[in-house]
Amino acid sequence: KTERRLIELAALMARARDGAIKPLAIANAQAQMDSAKMNILFEHRQGLLSHATAFGKDLDVPVEPLIRIDKNIADGISRTAREQQANLIVMGLGDRSLKTKLFGTLIDRVLWATHCPIAITRLHQSPLDLQSILVPIKHISATEAHKVQLTLALAQQCQARITLLHIASAPISSQREHEINSRMLALVGSSDHPVEITTTVVYRSSITRAIVNESSHHDLAVMRTHRRRTSAGGLSVGDISGRILQQLKCSVVLL
To answer: Which residues contact 85 (CB under 8 A, 6 or more apart)?
Structure first.
């Protein structure tokens, strides 16, 4: 079920850009390539790819399944993405990893090494059934525009409505609110496939609480964070993003 939802999400976004999806399965390297264990691993991974290919073709998207032998799964993902010149990596986030650390070792390592954006997803329903998507907007910038455009591509495919949300840290005038709403709409740009888009500006003392409360009226929240290498050699993600992820009840895509 998880595999199908990931493929559906990737397929919807790829279809909007006339792109392709490349389902990837990693087989852990063995000392002997003809060993019984290697044969079993290969057969299992090929089975996963067979399902993924069928899901993608159901959505009328070109599918190029890939299988790679590597000693390390995270390295296999990041290296294959580079070799295939991927524009986006789509990975699933389990609830269990949130209880111990934000993502877990596998995603942390891919975040550390990858050359392209990653969509870290936790999907409670099929992306095909999405009806409403929440997009918090922190600043009007090129990175926020990329997030909105990606959301727009997804919404066009599943005919979902979008809410662009800006949270003000202090009370603002009606003129300032109108200006922010106009600038958020400018992030959408022109579209050949109109999507219902609502802009909302609210004043809240807690950004986390505001996003979590608003998300209760939506099926999916799309957010963005940036990887930051720490002095200890690890990887950290913004504290606000982490707190929001742990409290959201709806599905989420973290870019």
So the answer is: none
